[in-house]
TrEMBL record:
Family: Belongs to the acetyltransferase Eis family.
Oligomer and partners: Homohexamer; trimer of dimers.
Official protein name in the record: GNAT family N-acetyltransferase
Positions of acetyl-CoA binding: V82, G83, V84, R90, Q91, G92, V93, L94, T95, S118, E119
Native source species: Kitasatospora aburaviensis
Gene3D superfamilies membership: 3.40.630.30, SCP2 sterol-binding domain (3.30.1050.10)
UniProt KW keywords: Acyltransferase, Transferase
């Protein structure tokens, strides 16, 4: 078997092999020629070819920026399009592709890789750990009233702002600009390069699928938030995503969609765990949570570089013993945080925590408390204070969240 990089000339073969692996047929392009794979970067993809010349596996990567705690923007690879055709599964094809891909990412000087896992059992063995989470929130229309805030007047919400209803085709530039401002301040968020918007790659509202968009403007008329939605049967208004630069703007957009006539329920597809929306409802039980799931998985390729890149909110020292069985590596590092910056160097000191690199990926953005993994039996705390110290160090404010589908 050969694993080789692809070029633009391999696009059709790559896509056909990928679709065969997933057992789906090509979708028809839209009137604009859009398909969800329009943003593939063929110079970053790999094709596994059997000895008889048949393509049997694919693995790809996108070039993104990831926002780390402390509003730090770093380049990262978004692993995608990973599949093996059914006739060649469990023969080492996937493992060989993932090993080759990680080597190439390191060769590019990258220290982080992320993905969305189609199956939770697959990617931990390659060093990835779930790092952000998302929920679906369903609110019956007849129970959708928002409570008057007790700590401040309702008039304080997005004072001076307004909401305008537009169609997706009318506001592409607005969506692109507002999302970009949002993602720069939101830990766990990924960039959406212009080519994604230009080609309509991905899911709504990036794709040109028919959508209404509630656009919020501040007192000066500048867009600072949006909610993309569609109404389907039986009377369900589904919000693809709500993007806002602050909580007051979010509330104004929520009030708009919850007040829509001739619908029976409003479904918010992506709400961060712990979001205050349920508390804003007059009837707390009206907000029904479902599809509580992982979203972005993180893989550290260079532990010291990754730990010194992000921002920190508490001073302290922690010795981490990190095992990376897939790459056959193990390292012990002294993490020292002072004044929101970290230093991370190899050390022979006794460890505070011993953990797998996938567990380090889970806690890296602050979305998973180290103490949770200690209690689950995955991370070993070598003394009673270690988990609490790690919780304080790795926390993120705000909590990480990712909306982007790739």
């Amino acid at each position: 078997m050969e694993i080789r990089p692809t070029t633009d000339q391999d696009r059709d073969v790559f896509v056909d092999t990928l679709l065969t692996a997933f057992g789906i047929f090509p979708e028809a392009p839209t009137a604009s020629g859009t398909v969800w794979w329009s943003a593939f970067e063929m110079d970053r993809n790999l094709l596994a070819v059997a000895a008889d010349g048949r393509p049997v596996g694919t693995a790809g990567a996108y070039s993104f920026e990831l926002t780390l705690p402390g509003e730090v923007l770093v380049p990262t690879s978004g692993v995608t399009a990973v599949g093996v055709v059914p006739s060649h599964r469990r023969q080492g094809v996937l493992t060989a592709m993932m090993r080759r891909q990680l080597a190439e990412l390191r060769g590019r000087g990258e220290f982080l890789s992320v993905l969305l896992a189609s199956e939770a059992l697959i990617y931990r063995r390659f060093g990835y750990g779930p790092a952000t989470y998302t929920q679906k929130l369903t609110v019956p229309r007849h129970r959708a009233a928002l409570a008057v805030p007790r700590a401040r007047g309702a008039a304080d919400d997005a004072a001076g702002g307004s909401v305008e209803i537009l169609r997706r085709a009318e506001c592409g530039e607005i969506l692109e600009d507002v999302y970009d401002r949002y993602r720069r301040a939101q830990p766990g968020a990924l960039s959406r390069p212009h080519r994604w918007w230009a080609s309509g790659a991905g899911q709504p509202p990036i794709s040109p699928a028919p959508r209404y968009v509630a656009v919020h403007r501040d007192g000066d008329g500048i867009p600072d938030g949006y909610a993309s939605y569609a109404i389907g049967e039986p009377g369900t208004l589904t919000v693809d995503e709500t993007i806002a630069t602050d909580d007051a703007v979010f509330t104004a957009l929520v009030r708009c969609v919850l007040g829509h006539d001739l619908v029976t329920q409003v479904v918010f597809k992506h709400v961060p765990p712990g979001h205050p929306l349920r508390w804003q409802l007059t009837d707390f039980r009206a907000g029904q949570v479902s599809d509580d799931t992982d979203w972005l998985w993180v893989r550290l390729l260079d532990v010291p570089r990754a730990l010194t890149a992000r921002g920190w909110f508490t001073d302290g020292e922690l010795v981490l013993d990190v095992d990376d069985p897939f790459l056959g590596e193990r390292g012990r590092y002294l993490l020292t945080v002072r004044d929101r910056k970290a230093d991370c160097v190899p050390t022979d000191l006794a460890p505070d925590l011993s953990l797998d690199v996938s567990d380090l990926g889970s806690i890296y953005l602050g979305g998973t408390a180290p103490s949770t993994l200690v209690r689950a039996g995955h991370v070993r705390a070598h003394h009673t204070d270690a988990a609490a110290l790690a919780d304080a160090l790795f926390r993120s404010d705000p909590a990480p969240h990712c909306l982007h589908w790739f």
